[in-house]
Write a structure and sequence with these properties.
Radius of gyration of chain B: 55 Å
CATH architecture of the largest domain in chain A: Orthogonal Bundle
Helix content of chain A: over 70%
Helix content of chain B: over 70%
Largest sheet of chain B: 2 strands, antiparallel
Structural class of chain A: mainly alpha
Number of strands of chain B: 2
Shape of chain B: rod-shaped
CATH topology of the largest domain in chain A: Rna Polymerase Sigma Factor, Chain: A
Shape of chain A: globular
CATH class of the largest domain in chain A: Mainly Alpha
Largest interface: A-B, 47 and 41 residues
Oligomer: heterodimer
Chain lengths: 181, 229
């Protein structure tokens, strides 16, 4: 069975009110907060930095999280946390240099090439998705775009749960390798 | 939580060994919110201790988000085509709707015409004995029946009744069926005894519609005799 590797998201995923969306995002953040703190503890030297970073992650979740597909929301939090921790490091380093040189503060400058790179990456990813084995495409589609759990996918396809997980993971690895070429 | 602990090679190797397929699968399950509750706290604690696990988690998270963004992009890029398709579909449906409307109007018009024709036919059939439209009934009119019911009679009936009334007044008249077949001349009935001749005349004239009143008259007389008797 050949499926569209990037079909339109399930309507059920977008059929929620703004209040429900906020409640869902807050719930996901509360569930992920502990893991995020452990995750950031390896990247940031001080607890205050971790708290600041978590606060920024939460604010971004409330501001932009409604555009994130529900299945990817937790992953999105980790991405934001990772980016924020890196930005914090850069800011700190730049600030220290700035203080050392001028004693002033500079605002972070957005990278104009980022959007273009992301668009190009998306095109590459679409192409890479189509080149995946059909059984892998199927798992990706059902999990990310149809928001079925791995257990549901395993039941539906009559395969072991571990097989569904492994196919998904290998699909992600293959895609990452294809994008990094 | 231990932070920035210098990691020796032995610990690094231990991390690599620990990062089994199961561990990677757990990352996937955790990111997608499917890790069992009893494994969740253990996994999160381990996340703070293993750089390998944190990196694996970050890689998978990045790919999942990227995939979901491709989904969003696909939705955005597919929207115009979808909307165009739906627009065309709407236009087609509008055209079909207008055609259906025309067909419906035409059908209604035809139905009205048929209904009008049927009604007119029915009306004509019901009005035929009364109305002046019937050419044979130009002299037809209403008479009051014995039972005071208003009934409509034809010209033939009126003539027949008048004739019967005149004959009933003449007690000497012997009415025979053949007499009705004789013709319009009543005197001929009285004067002639040659029934064969009268019958021959009748044979010639029975096809004439003007004599239909005679049959009506015979029927009237028969009815009167039946009622009297």
């Amino acid at each position: 069975m050949t499926q569209d590797p990037y079909p339109p998201a399930d309507e059920n995923l977008t059929a929620e009110t703004a209040t429900e969306g906020i409640a869902r995002r807050r719930r996901v953040f509360d569930e992920t907060k502990v893991g995020l703190r452990f995750f950031l503890s390896k990247r940031l030297p001080q607890d205050s930095d971790i708290d600041d970073c978590l606060q920024v992650v939460f604010v971004k979740l409330m501001e932009k999280g409604d555009g994130v597909a529900p299945p990817a929301l937790r992953s999105w939090l980790y991405r934001v946390a990772s980016n924020e921790s890196a930005r914090l490091w850069r800011t700190k380093a730049a600030t220290e240099k700035m203080y050392q040189k001028h004693g002033g503060v500079s605002a972070p400058v957005p990278d104009p090439a980022t959007a273009a790179m992301q668009a190009e990456s998306a095109e590459q990813l679409k192409k890479a998705l189509k080149e995946l084995p059909e059984s892998w495409q199927q798992i990706v589609s059902l999990r990310i775009y149809k928001n079925l759990t791995f257990q549901q996918i395993a039941d539906q396809l009559d395969i072991p749960l571990g097989t569904a997980l492994t196919r998904m993971r290998r699909a992600l690895e293959r895609l990452k390798n294809d994008l990094s070429k | 939580m231990d932070k920035f602990d210098p990691r020796n090679n032995q610990q690094q190797q231990q991390d690599d060994v620990d990062l089994t397929e199961t561990c990677k699968n757990q990352c996937l399950q955790y990111l997608l919110g499917e890790l069992a509750a009893d494994q969740l706290s253990l996994f999160e604690e381990r996340l703070g201790n293993s750089d390998q696990l944190a990196d694996e988690l970050q890689r998978q998270a990045e790919m999942i988000v990227t995939l979901s963004e491709v989904s969003t992009l696909a939705n955005v890029t597919s929207k115009p085509s979808v909307s165009t398709t739906s627009l065309n579909a709407n236009r087609r449906s509008q055209r079909l709707g207008s055609q259906n409307l025309l067909m419906r109007g035409f059908a209604i018009a035809v139905a009205v015409c048929i209904a009008g024709f049927v009604f007119r036919t029915w009306w004509s059939s019901t009005r035929a004995p009364q109305g002046p439209e019937s050419p044979n009934d130009n002299f037809a009119g209403r008479v009051i029946d014995d039972d005071t019911n208003m009934t409509t009679v034809s010209e033939a009936t009126l003539i027949a009744r008048a004739w019967v009334a005149a004959q009933v007044d003449d007690e000497d008249l012997v009415i025979t069926p053949n007499a009705f077949l004789a013709g319009t001349d009543v005197q001929a009935i009285h004067s002639s005894n040659d029934e064969l001749e009268l019958g021959a005349e009748a044979t010639d004239d029975t096809s004439d519609d003007s004599f239909s009143w005679m049959f009506t008259a015979a029927f009237e007389i028969h009815e009167m005799e039946t009622n009297d008797g």
